[in-house]
Give the backbone structure.
Amino acid sequence: MHVTRLKLANYRNYKVLDFEPHPGLTLLFGDNAQGKTNVLESVYLCAVGRSHRTNHDSELVAKGEDAAYIRADVLRGGIDRRIEVRLMRNGRKQIRIDGAAIARMGDLMGCLNAVLFSPEELSLVKEGPHARRRFLDVLLCQTSRAYFYSLVSYQRALSQRNTLLKAMREQDQRRSSQLEVWEEQLALHSTALHTARKGAMERIAPAASALHERIAGGAEALTLRYKGDLYGRELKDMLAANREDDIRRKSTGRGPHRDDFSVVVDGTDLRAFGSQGQQRTAALSIKLAEAACMEQMSGEQPVLLLDDVLSELDSGRQKRLLETVSDRQAILTCTSPPKGVRAEKRMCVQGGVLFPE
Ligand SMILES: Nc1ncnc2c1ncn2[C@@H]1O[C@H](COP(=O)(O)OP(=O)(O)OP(=O)(O)O)[C@@H](O)[C@H]1O
Ligand SMILES: [Mg+2]
């Protein structure tokens, strides 16, 4: 699938934009703060209904204007579709597909699949487990509604149990039966979370390793390993056994909300010991594996939105990365176009205007 045309009006620093990305690689280059990321953000918005940078839609409306308009024309399996988003200054949002307003955000999912890599994605390898759990949750929620509901139910039970723990003192026997109610819920939903995450990791880990080997030119080997905590019956027993500890700590110590996966290159944990280029290569490989996973599930290649991914990569890695994504639509931003890189289309971004090179 690919975006054939993107139109913007009063979006961020764009008064108007009418832009036809190439079905292959389009390079957007220009100085800082000219509007490169804004273009990627607007495409991503059409894919998932929200920005990757802010939860406040009104920030996307150009300063001094009342409303922003974003339109993406998408070609998928020979069929043209038009996604239109209208954002009002007061925060209201209206989304249309082929002219018809959608009732729920869920109706937008799958019209345009996009995977965005922004510098923040480095948190996948640089930060604590939270970023990696979120990565799995976002991928699984996008592809399975059942997962979404299990996750919501699990989180609700967790916060109920934690609230109760905070209100309890040690050896407070009266309330253990209340705790047990939530422990049963946690155990019940934990199994669905565990099974889905394990399944996703089984697909992502080998794909990420293969991509990483390709981009790093065989210089290093990446291994991802799912570290799932207890689930099901074992979780229930453990929670019951750990009540005293949990009351003292006032939170639930075990369960899928503690899941993680390790990111290891050549036997060393990247989080502690990776160079910047290694961390970036690994994070990119994980995101590209996500794209491959999405493609398996939907049968369509997602559009790749690559924000400033080339910096910190040596020229060999840059070249091999671009070869890896050359079979699909990718829009890539950079401050200065790298030498020796072949792109089907190059545009210079300056003050919210795109100029052909
Ligand atoms: N709501 C808005 N109205 C007008 N201008 C805005 C709005 N939001 C952001 N901008 C402007 O958009 C510009 C930033 O655009 P963007 O983040 O796309 O830059 P960039 O080209 O990706 O830069 P960098 O190379 O630093 O990443 C800034 O000049 C900012 O002031
Ligand atoms: Mg940017």
